Hints:
Layout: H1 2-19, H2 24-33, H3 36-45, H4 49-93, H5 98-111, H6 116-127
Amino acid sequence: MFFVFWLFLAALVGFLANSRGRSGFGYFLLSAVCSPLLGLIIVLVTNDLSVVAAENLQRQARSDAELQQWRTHEKQMEALRVATLTTKQTEVARPESVADELLKLAGLRDKGILTSEEFERQKKVLLKV
């Protein structure tokens, strides 16, 4: 009768271990050979692997979300960089019109920075006369 009770307790320890993500048969054997009380203590002291697995899945999901967010940010920054370069290239590629240059030269002449002769010389260069 004692031996049957011993195996019954060992089986309970095995079921408990199995519910905590551990090897139910291994803990049954450990409890049957050593002691159901020792097997129970070991099962309760060790981590619940099902909880650890769930935490790992949550951590992986957070990492994936952060990685996706970082990639989106990098794409936005690259698009902004390309847009900035395109804007600068169009500004450099677009020469100012001759009329704009003449207005600037006339403003410098009116302020006294250029003499009339320098203004006329620059005007001929701009007009290619």
